[in-house]
Amino acid sequence: MIDSHYTKSQCRGRSCIRGMRIRVSNILEMLAENVSISEILEDFPDLEPEDIQACLVFAARRTDFVRLTALRFGLMHSYPRHWQVG
Fold first, then answer.
1. 3-class DSSP assignment, residue 3
2. Distance between CA 6 and CA 33 in Å, rounded?
3. How many angstroms separate the Cα of 73 from the Cα of each of 23, 26, 62, 85?
4. Helix ranges (DSSP H) in 5-70
């Protein structure tokens, strides 16, 4: 389980794993550096394989959002004049 409630007292407000002081970003960085899951589990004996899977799911969900942008030409004419840039 990933704790995404942000408190300054734990992990400086960053997402952590099951209330422990292990940040999701640390695990993701280790995976990105090709550290094996077994090595991560050895380094962090309180972690379980499901915790690492939860980190990956958490990251996937954090990046899966629609980003709306207005085109400089085309849509700008439909916005009020004070919204237009340029």
1. strand
2. 26
3. 42, 41, 30, 11
4. 24-32, 37-43, 49-63
Q: Does domain 2-63 have CATH number 1.10.10.10?
A: yes
Q: What percent of the chain has pLDDT over 90?
A: 41
Alpha-carbon gap, residue 54 to 59, rounded angstroms: 9
Residue found by looking up tokens 């394989």 in the block = 49
**pLDDT tens across 1-29, in order?**
555 444 456 677 788 888 888 999 999 99
> What is the C-alpha separation between 29 and 78, in angstroms, rounded?
43
Can you tell me which residue has the tokens 């050895």? 42
